Amino acid sequence: MFNSKKNTGDADLSVLMEQVRSKPLPQHVAIIMDGNGRWATRRGLPRVAGHRQGVEALREVIRTSDELGIKYLTLYAFSTENWKRPAAEIDALMSLLVEYLRKEVRALHSNNVKISVLGEVNAFPPVAQKEIIKAVELTKDNTGLWVNIALNYGGRAEIIRAVKAIAKDVVDNKISIDDIDEQLFSNYLYTANIPDPDLLIRTSGEFRLSNFLLYQVAYTELVFTAPDVLWPDFDKKAYLEAIVEYQKRQRRYGGLNG
User: Fold this and answer.
1) Alpha-carbon distance values, 160 to 164, 205, 209, 216 (Å)
2) Which of 71, 93, 138, 225 has the most CB atoms around its CB within 10 Å?
3) How confident is residue 1, by pLDDT bands cut at 50, 70 and 90?
4) 112 part of the active site
5) Whole-model pTM?
6) Which of 66, 82, 169, 211 is catalytic?
């Protein structure tokens, strides 16, 4: 866990940015954007106000990832378990998703950002599905930062989906049981052709994966923020500090130090 210090000036941010750039960067960062509701509740605001403020943090993280040259950014936006929330909050989240895509996609496209989706968005309202499809189609050939948005996503459901698809291909004689290995299995996940995350960040001080990328994070470095750093509080400084924490780690993948 790391504690982000507040009130950092532009000069300090520049120093931190150079510090991050001076060491190997994660190629793929995944983020569990947690704490919007608590951020709003602490201020006596409706939960949707926290989700709206969280969009500002999202913009900052995308900008900073692009600025650093990070290749892949995967964001946990709506889980398969989030359907348990009150209907009014779900409706507000869907409206916010549509609003965000309508406002931001052109700018993201002009910055060469590619958008893709992990999850089963066919459960979403038609208007949300339409905006998602438009965003993915518009940006599909871009070669800059690749932003994966996990929507109606669950890690267990993703694994079951892959197992069913592999079983079908075995039955259809497209592959044999002997063909099944880790690489083939990965090709049946939503993240096929994307390297596993190097760094996973979770805000709000919770120490759980919450059904996010369960197969892909086997050797991912995990960074959890302090409890007072909720997702809307996760600014550029907090993001850079999380990367610094990652850069302190020794990644051994079960082996010995190099």
Assistant:
1) 6, 29, 18, 14
2) 225
3) low
4) no
5) 0.93
6) 82
Task: Locate 235 and state its tokens.
Answer: 């600014």
Of the candidates 3, 10, 12, 34, the residue annotated as catalytic is: 34
Sequence-distant (≥ 6) Cβ neighbours of residue 195 within 8 angstroms: 27, 28, 72
The tokens describing 73, both together, are 């950014």
CA–CA gap between residue 54 and residue 219 (Å, rounded): 28
Query: pLDDT by residue (tens digit) across 80-124?
Result: 999 999 999 999 999 999 999 999 999 999 999 999 999 999 999
Structure-token match 């990367």, residue found: 243
Q: Classify 192 in phi/psi space as left (phi over 0), alpha (psi -120 to 50) or beta.
A: beta
For residue 92, how many other CB atoms are within 10 A of its CB?
18
Helices (H), the chain: 10-21, 36-42, 47-68, 87-110, 126-139, 155-171, 182-186, 236-248
Q: What is the C-alpha R_g of the chain? A: 19
DSSP 57-89: HHHHHHHHHHHHT--EEEEEEEEGGGGGS-HHH
- Does the annotation count 233 as an active-site position? no
What are the backbone dihedrals phi and psi of residue 218, each rounded to the nearest 5 degrees, phi first? -55, -40
The answer to whether the CB of 86 falls within 8 A of the CB of 117 is: no
Alpha-carbon distance 252 to 255, whole Å?
Answer: 5
For residue 145, what are the contacts with CB-CB under 8 A and spacing of at least 6?
A: 62, 65, 66, 70, 71, 72, 73, 111, 112, 113, 114
Other Cβ atoms closer than 10 A to 71: 17
Whole-number average pLDDT of the chain: 94
Q: Which amino acid belongs to residue 213? A: L
